[in-house]
Amino acid sequence: DPDGDALQFYWFNYAEAGTMKDQTVKIHSAENMARVHVVAPDVEKPQSIHFILKLTDRGEPH
Q: Within a domain: residue 32?
């Protein structure tokens, strides 16, 4: 953040955008971390998975 405010990170799977809609994709992360570890299920053919990172500046203005 340019003015040094703390950042809040929230990662989630956006299943509607990918081809792997019916399987669970686990995101392993401590709360509010810039990095995550993803464990995808085994597949028989290539699949796409989409993730979104919601990043919020905790300073003023928001």
A: yes
